Prior knowledge:
Helix content is 17%, strand content 47%. The protein is α+β, with helices and mostly antiparallel strands.
Amino acid sequence: MKLSQKIVLTTAFITGAALNAPAFAKDSSVNVDTLIEKNLQAHGGREALDKIHDMTMHGIMLMGPVEAPFTIYFKRPGKVRMEFEVQGMKGIQSYDGETGWAVMPFMGKTDPEKMAEDQLKDLKNMADFEGPLIDYAKKDHTVEYVGEADVEGTPAYELKLTKKDGDVDHIFLDKDYGLEVVTKSKLNRMGQVMEVETAFSNYKPVDGLIIAHAISSKINGQPGQKITINKVDTNTGLSDNFFAMPKTKSENDGKDKNSHKDADKG
C-alpha cells in the first residue's frame, strides 16, 4: 500500500478522517522539496522503499456494526488487488496496470467485469503504493506548499497536491516527524462530489519502512470506516497474472466447447 495513502474500495469503502486545520502564515525557509524529502526519510528512506517489489496487507474494516476482513496486494509497477468479505461473500477489485476489473457478488455480479473509468480512478491511485508525493513531478502531479496548520492540536505543514487526473488533496505532515497526520480530498465520482478526510496513526516499522496501521475516515462530514492493518508481508513473489482479469465462466465454457469440436474433427 502507498506509504501515505488512504485505502479506497470504490464500491465498498473510502477512507478518511476528521480535520480541523486553520492555516497559518507561510514559513519562507520551508519548501515543497524539503518537506517531501523529510516525509520520505520518515517513512524509512529511498533505499528501504526501493527494496520493496511487492507488498501484502491484511486487516479489518469496521463499517458501523459490520466487520469486513480484507487483504490488499501491491506489486511494482502499478498493480493492486483487493479482496474483502462482506456477509460471507468475497469481493475483488484489481488493476494490472492496464485493465481494472471487479467481482462483486453482493451486487449480483459473480463474474469478473471491467470497471468503468470513473470507478477505476481510485484503484489506479492506490496502485502507486509509495504515495503521490514521492517523485511527484515524474508522475505529472504538482505540489504547492500552503503553510503551517494546526490539526487537532498537532502542528503540521500543509501541502496541496494536484494530481494528473485532476483530483486535489491537501496533505498535512507532522511538523516534527514529517509523517502524514491527515489528508483532505475533494473527489468527483460517478457524478457526485465527496469530501473525504483521512487520518493516519499507529505507525509501525515493516522491513525498514514506517507504515500507518490505523486509518479512520469521514465522508461529507459523516463518520466513515475504521481500518486496522494487522499484518504486512513484503517481497512474497506475487505474479503478474494474479492481478490480471480472469476469463468469465461463459468464456471458459465456450473454450471448452471449441476444444471438444476440435477433438471431434481430429
